[in-house]
Design goal:
InterPro entries: Flavodoxin_fold, Flavoprotein-like_sf, NAD(P)H_dehydrogenase_qn. The chain has a single domain (5-190), classed as Flavodoxin domain (Rossmann fold). Helix content is 37%, strand content 20%. It has six helices and seven strands, in the order βαβαβαβββααβα.
């Protein structure tokens, strides 16, 4: 088995907490399994998260975003870890995606076609979400909007194939034993990168 190029993107706001622990556990298993890994911690990047003119006008493209695009092109597999806030993704993640997944990079408009052409084909993804909502309630009553937003209307739209998603919650009331089980699940998911 030859190793894959794996980009792990963490959209958690700090280096502490269960989000960072999941990222670390996943990354350790990826490396132990012979894959190459690169990390993007969105809270450490310097960029304007607001797409100020939509796609009508070019916006200065910060060096951290240039590096992030290079990492996305390098990667064969992308793992995205993020908390669910108000049923959606954190503003920093949304801003990052708005700024990085630009026309001509992630997709291309086609004359006389209803749908743009995806430009990031051949890549796969794992998603790891944390939340304070019970998972069953998030999935069945809310219909998992933060999951579908990223997996279907963002990644799949750009040609990236989501393989598996894990949701962890409620974090706020979780026990040490529950968190240990979550870390084990993250390790097991990393073993499914091949």
């Amino acid at each position: 088995m030859s190793g894959k190029k794996v980009l792990v993107i963490s959209a958690h706001p700090t280096e502490q907490g269960i989000g960072q622990a999941l990222a670390s556990e996943y990354g350790t298993a990826i490396t132990a399994n012979g894959h190459q890994i690169r990390w993007l911690y969105l809270n450490t990047l310097s960029f304007d998260p607001v797409l100020r003119h939509g796609y009508r006008q070019l916006q200065p493209f910060e060096p951290d975003l240039q590096a992030a695009q290079a990492d996305l092109l390098w990667a064969e597999h992308i793992t995205l870890l993020y908390p669910v806030w108000w049923g959606s993704v954190p503003a920093l993640l949304k801003g990052f995606l708005d700024r990085v997944l630009l026309p001509g990079f992630a997709f291309k408009y086609q004359p006389d076609k209803k749908y743009p052409q995806p430009l990031l084909m051949g890549k796969t993804a794992h998603l790891l979400l944390t939340m304070d909502t019970p998972i069953w309630y998030f999935r069945w009553f809310y219909q998992a909007p933060a999951l579908h937003q990223i997996s279907k209307t963002t990644l799949a739209f750009c040609g990236i194939k989501p393989l598996k998603s894990l949701m962890f919650g409620p974090v706020v009331s979780s026990s040490v034993q529950q968190r240990q089980r979550w870390l084990q699940q993250a390790r097991q998911l990393a073993l499914k990168v091949y």
